[in-house]
Amino acid sequence: MSALILPAMLGGLTTGAIYALVALGLTLIYGVLHIINFAHGSLLMLALYGVYFLHVWLGFDPYLAIPIIAPLFFVLGYALQRGVIAPFSGGKEQNVLLVTLALSIVFDNLALYFWTSNTRTVAVSYAYTMVEVGPAFIPLPKVIAFFAAMLCAAILWLVINRTRIGKAIRAVAIEKRGAQLVGIEVEQTYAVCFGIGTACVAVAACLLIPTFYVTPQVGYAFVLVAFTTVVLGGMGSFAGALVSGLLLGVIEALCGLFLGETLGQIGIFVAFILILLFRPAGLFGQRTA
Amino acid sequence: MKHATLGEWVLYGAVCAYLLALYALPSDVWLGFTINALIVTVLSIAWNITGGYGGQMSFGHAALFGTGAFVTAILQVRLGVNPWLAAPLAIAAAALVAGVIGALSFRYGLKGSYFALVTLAFAEVLRILASSFSITGGGQGILVPYKAGVENLQFASRVSTYTLALALVALGMLVTAWMQRSRFGAYLIAIRENEEAAKALGIDTFRTKVLAMVLSGAIAGTAGVAYLQTFLFVDSQIAYGASMSVEALLGPMIGGSGTLWGPLVGTLALHLLGESAKELVSGAPGLNLVLYGVVLLVILRYLPDGLVGLARRVRLPRRAPAASMKEAR
């Protein structure tokens, strides 16, 4: 049994990297707009289809699709926040939740209508190229995703902490009215923030698809785990999202190993409840109200 | 209590007329559709107590609904308990689960989106547990043998089942009406409006919120029992899946959260909408739910207080200013 633990943990780390990637965009949106974005999983699903069709129709390698998909999804996210989420919710927190829920219903079922419920995969030559990591063999795309998650977290951190728009985003996140008073356009900043978050999920899709699949319902499986990752890491914290994503991957793998495959995810939600109860600010978050 | 406006009379009258018309023109299709909607209404009434009146948005009411359904199913099928005895035990179990979730969450001061997420997580934990153990039927679920008869809480005729569902909705609304007028209800609304102020006034906010959860849990558990007795089947996805939690909150939100008639009006409207969308674009899987989602968005945009809120604004033209002063009071 103990010989299995280390490989299981390494496998869990690579799964966790994907969780972290999906959660990075969400933590930005949650940390700044303070909304539960239930459409996040559906946006991931749309991005997965985007990569899939770029590959099938135009022969794009999933990784080379990043420079196309990411800006496209930035625009989509920006437009969604500006055109649908902000005006339709009237600024009420509980309505935002319902608007994003309704959006996810619309997206998931549009996908079902246009692309049917068939499971689709992208066949790339390197999908089963194994890399030897200590005692385990891990598919090359998962190793790439692992390092890409760190790179993404670092880039996001730089954007938020070292750029002008990043400064505006931080200001709006901390004190909306104060930011407005010093001349920051709050709605604009929110939309940019939502756009960046959506671009992140598009990048996650490009890194995910070589070892995964896409169906219209694929997003749902990620939404809950992504929220867990965000809360565990402390909302708005990229380093937190990265570490907690990896941690959750390992927890899931170990629970799967010791309790059986079907109970694997229970560890994630139990960890989630415990974190919410005892440390709602997360591992890396500052305690707020 | 404010007097009902003309719009409210028309809306509630239409709902009651529809519900009673089914007795005059019983059609199996419409009865089946409405029974389903009424059971969901009971769940919505449960959600409305904590979410609507108490302002604690739960995203995991499936945890309570599912416990009601599973406990009564397990007691009947695995232990041979009579449904009339199993039902109250299941309702008590759901109330207990609600109390535990509430006590834990409120003890640690969770509110807003954190409360929504923790309730969602509790429902997910229960779903995974239910799909992994044999006592809940694992992946297959539990099938209750069909033995029609009053002693088995199963009815051969749809009209009887319909009457039972209608009675449960009426009971739920009576409880809500009682709560609205009671001290407990006033405390609950005060907490929704401003928890700090409520605390400053000497209201035991923790106790009030937990009690609201327990009451909500009992009603949600009743919905679960009614679901099981009607469809004689439950599995982890039906009982604890997120779609049930979403159904629980959509009705009140669309109908008008924190209102007596909101859950019934909203749930019936949504089910009618869903069914008509299905008819309208039959043969195109998914398109009906797209339409459903779009209408949902439009309602959120243009009817922020729900259908009941809309009806409240429809009133007879006032004749004298004095009369309107009286009305406004």
TrEMBL record, chain A:
Belongs to the binding-protein-dependent transport system permease family. LivHM subfamily. This is Branched-chain amino acid ABC transporter permease. Keywords: Amino-acid transport, Cell membrane, Membrane, Transmembrane, Transmembrane helix, Transport. It holds the Pfam family BPD_transp_2. It is found in: Cell membrane. The chain crosses the membrane at residues 6-31, 38-58, 64-84, 96-116, 136-160, 190-212, 266-285. The keyword Transmembrane applies.
TrEMBL record, chain B:
InterPro entries: ABC_transp_permease (IPR001851), LivM-like (IPR043428). It comes from the Bacteria. Keywords: Cell membrane, Membrane, Transmembrane, Transmembrane helix. The keyword Transmembrane applies. It is a multi-pass membrane protein. The chain crosses the membrane at residues 9-25, 31-50, 62-79, 85-106, 113-135, 155-179, 210-234, 254-274, 286-303. Pfam families: BPD_transp_2. It is found in: Cell membrane. This is Branched-chain amino acid ABC transporter permease. It comes from Alsobacter ponti. The lineage of its organism: Bacteria, Pseudomonadati, Pseudomonadota, Alphaproteobacteria, Hyphomicrobiales.
